[in-house]
Amino acid sequence: MTLRTRLALALVTLSTVGLAVFGVATYSLYEQSLENRLDEQLHSVSGPLSGRMVNEALGLSSGPTRPDRDSPDGANPQPGGGSALNVFGALVDSDGDVIATAEPLVTTSRPALGEDLHRVRNATLKTVGSTTGSGDWRVLVEPVEERTGGPGGFDSPLSSAEIDLAGAVAVVALPTDEIEAQMGNLLWIELVSALVLISALGAGAWLVLGRGLRPLESMASSAADIARGDLAVRVSPSDDRTEVGQLGIALNTMLDAISAAFDERDATEARLRQFLADASHELRTPLTSIQGFAELSRLDPRESEVDLPVILRRIEEESQRMKVLVEDLLLLARIDQTRPFEPEAIDLAVLAADACTDAVAVDPTRTITLDAPAPVVVRGDVAHLRQAIANLVTNALRHTDDGTPLEVAVVADAGHGTVRVRDHGLGLDSEGIEHAFDRFWQADAARSGSGAGLGLSIVAGIAEEHGGSARITNHPDGGAVAELSVALSDDVLSDPRSDEL
To answer: With a threshold of 0.85, does the pTM exceed it?
Structure first.
């Protein structure tokens, strides 16, 4: 069953049980109330009626004659006086014989008197059947002594009749027809009311639940669309005012994360395909050269103008070029794996000085200045940071003309140590600034030099590995400025002299 059906059935079932309990309790209490009222009527008429029947039995009042004592059940007694109530009265002696009666004015039914009435010693109330088999009677049985004070309490001298009253009981009964009629009416009222109420409650619950669950049905429809591959679909409602809205927010947040993950996966796959294509292209060039030179080396020098030493040198150069490319690719792969490393304290000023020294050795014609007035200590992988700073300086050398000066600065600012390398070349256009750190991306024709386009990619990967950043901009006075920024070591941050760095 659907959730809507289960909730509606549960509500109707609980309501039915509640109404049943309420109906039974109401029925019982109302029946008890009517019975108590009938008992009060019995108590109010039992005194006068018992006294009259005793007087009849003793012959102290005018009225019908006593019934035949030989009659087995005291039937056909003569009525004794009138009564405004439909009440039956009987006087039963110690032998169980009816010695006087008071007949009801309306009904012809009589209560079915048991054979043990004469054994009653205290006032007793009970419900009995009728002689005709239909309808019940409420009966009050009292010993005569409780009403008359005993045989010695009468106003007449003792006689043989008084002796017969020893152990006698007075029986007063009222029919329960009115109670049964009222209880029957109440039962019908309760049944009809409960049926109408449950029907209305079930219909209302079905409509209200349908309206309340409509957003869930909409979410289910949206989820089906999403399952078919449409990740742009979003569920509604998605607000925090209701539980359903909060579910919508959670689902949309999850869908955003899934969509972003798929986009990232697609982008990663695209980068990987491009990376493999570029790597294959870069490796193919030196391999082709090596293959060509190797084929030339097999020619007979006496039959051709092949210079074998030159061929071997070129094979060595291309092999070295391929080795550098492979090492860069392996370094990028290790950085991408984000392997853990044991950080150590590193002075960026020392690494920058080493990179400047190497650059001067490579190109003595360059004017390279270093501005590092104080130690800038960070924590990280010394080999990787040395590689990153060296790549910044090498990139500036490679993409500027001979003799172009370079400026290297190491500063501590806002909790980070930064190495800046500025050249005085032509700078980069907007596309160059956007893609400078992309793998295998080459600068435009305005920038001279050659390479595989992995140097700045390695810098960006190492910066990310250390929780820092790398960026490249154009200097207002010309040239490009490349930066590597890494968080300072806690030892430097806690040093009161750090503000002077």
So the answer is: no
